[in-house]
Each structure stands twice: as structure tokens, then as C-alpha cells.
């Protein structure tokens, strides 16, 4: 399995609006995509910004590439969300998942 990890940052006054768009659209909507196993949205204050991290779990790198294409590392950010972000990773990082102790039920 593959974890796709991405970071985005907002000003505090935009954080709730960004999260309100992110959670219901991004992660639940992904469940229809073959090979997608689940995801997590993380949020924390970081200096004068709010940091968001999304972690999406994929069955394989091939499943991710089938959806995202050959440039699968590129961040995909809908235009309506860009106005909330003060900065963001242009590319996602991908890691092979080596252990899921206690988390396997979350990825069904």
C-alpha cells in the first residue's frame, strides 16, 4: 500500500472555511475510485498559519497512477480552494506503508 502525503497552509481566518470544503468533498468522494483505501485530514496551528496535512492511502502506486496519470506526484487542488491557501506543496510525497498496527480496520 502507498500513503500519499500533502501539506497545505492557510491563514487562521481561512482555516475553518478551507476545512469545510476539504473534508466532505475530498475524502468521502474518493471512496468511489478503484484502489483508494481511505484518508485522514490533519490540522494544527503552526506559527501564524494553520497547517493541513492530507494522507491518502492507495492499494498500489499503479492504482494511484491510473487516476492521477504519469505525473501522479503533482498536487491536484481545485481552483475554488486556492483562495484559502497561503502556500502549499506543489507535489505530494509517496511512501510505501510497511506497518499498520492497530489501523487495519480503518482502511477497509
TrEMBL record:
The keyword Oxidoreductase applies. GO terms for molecular function: monooxygenase activity. Gene3D superfamilies: 3.30.70.100. Keywords: Monooxygenase, Oxidoreductase. It comes from the Bacteria. This is Antibiotic biosynthesis monooxygenase.
Amino acid at each position: 500500500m502507498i500513503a500519499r502525503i500533502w501539506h497545505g497552509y492557510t491563514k487562521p481566518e481561512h482555516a475553518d472555511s478551507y476545512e469545510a470544503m476539504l473534508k466532505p468533498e475530498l475524502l468521502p468522494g474518493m471512496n468511489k475510485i478503484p484502489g483508494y483505501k481511505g484518508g485522514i485530514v490533519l490540522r494544527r496551528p503552526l506559527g501564524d498559519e494553520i497547517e493541513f496535512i492530507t494522507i491518502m492511502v492507495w492499494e498500489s502506486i499503479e492504482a494511484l497512477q491510473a487516476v492521477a496519470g504519469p505525473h501522479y506526484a503533482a498536487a491536484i487542488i481545485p481552483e475554488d480552494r486556492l483562495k484559502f491557501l497561503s502556500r502549499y506543496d506543489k507535489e505530494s510525497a509517496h511512501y510505501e506503508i510497511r506497518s499498520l498496527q492497530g489501523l487495519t480496520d480503518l482502511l477497509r
